[in-house]
Design goal:
The chain is an alpha+beta fold and 350 residues long. Helix 1 packs across helix 4. It is globular, with a radius of gyration of 22 Å. The mean pLDDT is 91. It binds FE2/S2 (inorganic) cluster and fe (ii) ion.
């Protein structure tokens, strides 16, 4: 038994974060997102390209996303300053010739943004050296048409959201159901793990006997592999002979005590489109149960109790904090990140 590491609420900078999915950003429209406490306007210009700007007007801070976007320039709703999608100011209606500033003097901050496999990613961190940005996370190649996106606000810190989702021992209590999993139905589990880029992998294994929801959708006992990577991305890849499923779950910090959880699913299942409504219902219910569970934990932890991490069920949570600490230290020291995870077999009951 090990005392719980003091969780550090500092946001991890230097990563791509899921900000939205393709469908959220219509042509010639903008949306607002708060990412790691920063206001970001994300838009799609009339050619279809996405762009991201700081959402506070350089003049007096008004939210630019509340203004007008015509597909080419964003107009601030307060005094009508206009900005092109690369952040350059193009008009300041109040200024007479020769007065300071002129549009050429003003730029709105931009954010690197990329759209891939139906997901809109925004990079938060030092982006001055655009060529050295890491690649956007991807899911294994399975046709990669986004089938379903669920988004849910967790009213807790990024640490609670991530560790709450990766926790392996809560299923029989939080997600129990007469249809797919008996309450308190726990069985022996043994899984082998290996290091993976920025995280670890639960090696490919046959999904467990008490995961009935799984069998229902994939029509048999699937083989599954799960990876976790900083800053909070879980990718699950499951397949039977005829069907493949891939899920990407990403936690994006909004503020210190609000986290947006995106669950994005891809699949190639014969007749799979018809499944969408049912999967939305079941996965939405799971996510809601997790959101409630971490809220209960947050409410308890608000009293600042001493907590602990047990062997082996909580080992992955310990790994998460170790990775996070190593990333922060490496950033501080200006050296490359060194993955501290070593191959290991973990045993628990769930
Ligand atoms: S606050 Fe935006 S133009 Fe003045
Ligand atoms: Fe859960």
């Amino acid at each position: 038994m090990i005392n719980s590491p003091a969780s550090s609420d500092a946001f991890l900078r230097g990563f791509w974060y899921v900000a939205a999915v393709t469908r959220d950003i219509k042509p010639s429209k903008t949306i607002h997102r708060t990412l790691l406490g920063e206001p970001v306007l994300i838009g799609r210009d009339m050619t279809g390209a996405v762009f991201a700007l700081s959402d506070t007007c350089p003049h007096r801070g008004t939210l630019l996303s509340r203004g007008i976007f015509d597909g080419e320039t964003v107009e601030c709703p307060y005094h009508g300053w206009r900005f092109s999608t690369n952040g350059q100011c193009t008009a300041i209606p109040s200024q007479k010739e020769g007065q300071k500033p002129q549009p050429g003097d003003i730029r709105a901050r931009t954010y690197p943004v990329q759209e891939s496999e139906g997901i809109v990613w925004v990079f938060i961190g030092d982006d001055k050296k655009a060529e050295s940005l890491p690649a956007v996370p991807t899911v294994p190649e399975i046709g990669n048409r986004l089938q379903l996106h669920l988004r849910r606000t967790f009213h807790c810190s990024i640490d609670l959201a991530i560790t709450g989702l990766m926790d392996p021992a809560h299923g029989a209590f939080v997600h129990a159901s007469s249809v797919w999993r008996g309450h308190r139905d726990v069985r022996d589990k043994e899984k082998s793990f290996s290091p993976a880029p920025m995280g670890w992998r639960m090696d490919r294994h046959v999904a467990s006997g008490n995961a009935r929801a799984y069998r229902l959708f994939l029509g048999g006992a699937p083989e599954t592999e799960i990876t976790y990577a900083l800053p909070g991305i879980r990718v699950e890849h499951a397949s039977t002979g005829k069907a493949t499923y891939c899920g990407l779950t990403a936690c994006t910090p909004v503020t210190a005590d609000t986290t947006e959880v995106h669950h994005i699913m891809y699949w190639t299942i014969p007749g799979g489109a018809a499944l969408r409504g049912l999967v939305r219902l079941v996965a939405g219910r799971f996510l809601g149960q997790d959101a409630d569970a971490v809220k209960d934990m947050r409410d308890g932890q608000a009293f600042d109790p001493e907590t602990m991490l047990v062997e082996d069920a909580d080992t992955q949570i310990r790994w998460y904090y170790r990775l996070k600490k190593e990333w922060q230290q490496a950033q501080k020291d200006g050296r490359p990140f060194q993955n501290p995870i070593e191959p290991l077999t973990l045993r628990w009951r769930s």
